[in-house]
Amino acid sequence: MSGRLAGEVVVVTGGARGIGAAVAEVAEREGARVAVIDVSPGGRGFAVQADITEAEQVEAAVSAVVAELGPVTVLVNNAGRNASFDPVGMSEAEWDAVFAIDLKAAWLMARAVLPGMKAAGRGSIVNIASLHARMTSRGMFPYAAAKSGLVGLTRSLALETGPFGVRVNAVSPGWTATRLVEEYLAAHPDPGERARIEGLHPMGRIGTPEEIAEVVCFLASGAAAFVTGAEWAVDGGMSARFA
After folding, report:
1. With CB atoms counted within 10 Å of each terminal CB, which end of the chain scores lower, N or C?
2. Residue limits of the Ketoreductase domain (predicted)?
């Protein structure tokens, strides 16, 4: 599969670290010209610092990428945040902030790149959702709602853009060894928490950002030319368990 993204211009949001950084690395390895858009400075390839919950900043960031690298052919909507709120105590401002980054930003980014993709008659968008879109746990309100919305957005965009040669898919990771997850496990009062979580997976371990990135880049590539409107679970089989 070497060179599967040769000639592509790939934009990764939230690509300064974690899964996004791994996607940028794999895409670059596979021949793509890569741009990272993140609120934090830095990242692989052409880095643009922007808040993608703001429409004007999205348009400016995409324009900067196009000027530097050329028209965007692949968008990976990776930027997001975890959320843990009480459904009664949560304020409207907190709700809006969660949905702004976990759902609205994906639409704003898609809106900015789709005219170019439609004009070219080709393109791919991959949205990073979560297993919480279909199964969740207490203490993750309203993250599951936002990620469910992102999967719905994926399906809707796939139907709207398919006639123009644009594919839209979602990847739903399970437990992945990102910095946030490692910090959670290191700070957990129960030293057996890591073993408990690993035991939830039929494969006996959690995933790596690189493993998620490989699936994302496959879906973005021509090897997945007949895949659109799909949600792929990349979770080591955890969602196959009954309990």
Report:
1. C
2. 8-178
The answer to whether residue 210 is domain-embedded is: yes
Q: What is the residue range of 185's domain?
A: 9-240
State residue 1's pLDDT score: 52
Going by C-alpha positions, the residue among 234, 235, 225, 209 that lies closest to residue 27 is: 209
Give the residues across from 125 on adjacent strands: 75, 168
Which of 7, 41, 6, 35 lies closest to 23, judged by CA? 35
Backbone angles phi, psi at 144, to 5 degrees: -60, -40
184 is an active site residue:
no
Instruction: Let me know: does 167 contact 159? Beta carbons within 8 Å.
Output: no
Residue with tokens 């496990």: 185
Give me the catalytic one of 99, 107, 141, 143.
143
> How confident is the model over 98-134, as pLDDT tens digits?
999 999 999 999 999 999 999 999 999 999 999 999 9
Q: Convert the pLDDT of each residue in 108-118 to its tens digit.
A: 999 999 999 99
Closest to 85 (Cα-Cα) out of 76, 94, 93: 94
Amino acid, single-letter form, for residue 117: M
Residue 141 placed within a domain: yes
Q: Are 42 and 61 in contact (CB under 8 A)?
A: no
76, 109, 82: which is closest to 214 by C-alpha?
Answer: 76
Helical packing angle, 18-29 and 209-220, nearest 10°: 50
Query: What's the pLDDT tens digit per position in 50-92?
Result: 999 999 999 999 999 999 999 999 999 999 998 899 999 999 9
